[in-house]
Amino acid sequence: MEKNIRIGIGALAGLLLLRNLWVILFNLPDEMDQGPIYRIFFYHLPAYFTAMCCYLAALAASVLYLTKRDLRYDAVAMAATEVGLAFAAVNLITGMIWGRVIWGIWWAWDARLTWALICWLVYFGYLMLRQAIDDPSERAKNSAVLSIFSFVSVAITYKAIEWWRTQHPGPVLSFRTGKQLIDPGMERMLYANFLALLLLAIVMVTVRLHQETLQRQIDGLRRRAHAL
Amino acid sequence: MIFLQVALKDLRSELRTKESLNASLSFAVVILLLFSFAFDPSGEAVAEFSGGLLWLVFAFAGALILNRSFARELPNDCLEVLLASPVSGAQLFLGKSIASFVLLLGIELLCLPIFGIFYNLTWTPRFLPLLGIFVLGTWGLTILGTLFSALTVNLSLRELMLPMLLYPMLIPALMAAMRLTTILLSGNDIGGDDLVWLRLLVGFDVVFTTLALALVETILVR
């Protein structure tokens, strides 16, 4: 049953991604100033939002682990962080490609870019810490605390374009600016692709959780075999 | 005020052995020396990146002190005894943070004149605001570093894990402290737009001290 739901959501995400790709490539016109490269934003921005959602889920799961001490929450935090890192990498890489075309350089040491990289490194450190601890409950407890600390960098990354004067484009979505700065069709496509990537992220997190459950079962069997 | 007793205990034991103090101070001087090969130390531009250099030295030297903060208690199971004693986790953590803070601030105050001599910088006219920045920056470094020291104390790779976790998360404080120190060492006063860095530094200290004190009990209880 669980597997079928996963396949269903995965298929929906795949179809939505294909449909969005079609609209992005063939229906939406080129942007006036940037030309065709602006289309990368339809992946850059939704990947960032998806990564933020994953980090938020990891924070919620970490807080829940510390209050309920149930290892399932720890597994959710780990899976959400891993998937969040993958989407944050998509965000960084697409941003670099855009920067190379528009700014002429792959990387600018601008506040938003730097913070996105710091955020990635902080969560990578979280995964490193997990690898370094063998005892499951000790690992869950320490990494939950680290996850809560790490979220501060997510909040700073989100606000970086407001706090510092940056080379990175400012907020464009109407829910942040209160004005319609971009074409409504383009804004709708950003949300549509965000939905597709979010569904994909949910599938990836559940697959990772399933792997974790299997790993725990294997560990249990191994322990029993040793005891015998 | 048990945390003060913990801090005094740590300071006393460190001053007796001078283990991390000597290592940290000599390491700081070695890095100061190495920096002079990376660029022209007599150039006019030194003041422009002086804050960055100085805080990198403090961050590297700080990691050596912070690594020992909880690891010092590992021989003879001292940490277990401390945790079993009626001292709360927050008091123990605060005491250890204060001890590391005092040690690191001492090293910084020794490094500053050495830095001034090596790199031909005048720091005396703005010593008091500089001390204020050192206090704020060092507190941020030690509070976060002591917490991560507690997180990594039982790891075999703790010497590697502590800087790996600490440095990326410390960036807001380091960035602000570097910027403010550079302003002061360039002979200017902090004001106008620069106050945003001071606010960032104070905000960092407040947020992370609160978070650390709220969560440290969870880390220490086994």
Walkthrough of the structure:
The complex is a heterodimer of chains A (228) and B (222). Chain A is mostly helical. Chain A has one domain. Chain A is built from seven helices and no strands. Chain A has helices at residues 2-27, 41-68, 71-102, 111-132, 136-163, 174-177, 184-227. In chain A, helix 1 packs antiparallel against helix 7 (184-227), helix 2 runs antiparallel to helix 3 and helix 3 (71-102) crosses helix 7 (184-227). Chain A is globular and about 70 Å long. Chain B has one domain (2-220). Chain B has helices at 2-17, 19-38, 46-71, 78-84, 89-118, 127-152, 158-185, 195-220. Chain B is globular and about 55 Å long. With 222 residues, chain B is an all-alpha fold. Chains A and B meet through helix 4 and helix 5 of A and helix 6, helix 7 and helix 8 of B.
Quick take:
The complex is a heterodimer of chains A (228) and B (222). With 228 residues, chain A is an all-alpha fold.
Considering DSSP H and I runs of 4 or more, what fraction of the residues of chain B is helical? over 70%
- Tell me the structural class of chain B: mainly alpha
Average pLDDT of chain A: 88
- Indicate the proportion of strand residues of chain A: under 5%
In this structure, how is the largest beta sheet of chain B organized?
none
**How many DSSP helices of chain B?**
8
CA-to-CA gap between the ends of chain A?
A: 34 Å
Which band does the percent of strand residues of chain B land in?
under 5%
Question: SS-based structural class of chain A?
Answer: mainly alpha
Gross morphology of chain A is globular
Number of domains of chain B: 1
